[in-house]
Specification:
Largest sheet: 4 strands, mixed
Number of domains: 1
Number of helices: 3
Distance between the termini: 21 Å
Strand order of the largest sheet: 1-2-4-3
Helix content: 25-40%
Strand content: 25-35%
């Protein structure tokens, strides 16, 4: 199974959410699932780290003046997670059928063009 977690903080940043997501991600990776964690970078630049079945993508972030050692995630375009962790073709077809409602309403988003 493919599992993705989107979180504001992830270790080495210290918070309850960071510790919980780290434990969940590592536990699921040990069970053989392919896990992706998308989190704010703890450095001044974005980067990726890899372990067996666990990928941590650190996105651009800015310093949080209200919390020591914490940074804010600067969210990228809405389609970024889907490009990192694309579902299999069969799931894409199901997603396309469910998006017909939105296409009929006249709304258009960039991530729909990836199908």
């Amino acid at each position: 199974m493919r599992i993705a977690y989107l979180t504001q903080s992830y270790p080495p940043m210290i918070s309850g959410a960071a510790i919980l997501v780290e434990r969940l991600a590592k536990s699921m990776a040990r069970r053989g699932h392919q896990v992706l964690v998308i989190a704010a970078s703890d450095k001044a630049y974005p980067y990726r780290s890899y372990q067996e079945n666990l990928t941590v993508v650190r996105l651009r972030s800015v310093y949080n003046p209200l919390r020591i050692g914490q940074r804010f995630l600067v969210y990228p375009r809405a389609d970024y997670p889907s490009r990192l962790f694309a579902p299999p073709l069969s799931q894409k077809w199901c997603m396309m059928e469910s998006m017909d409602f939105w296409q009929n309403q006249g709304t258009s988003t960039d991530w729909q063009t990836g199908f």
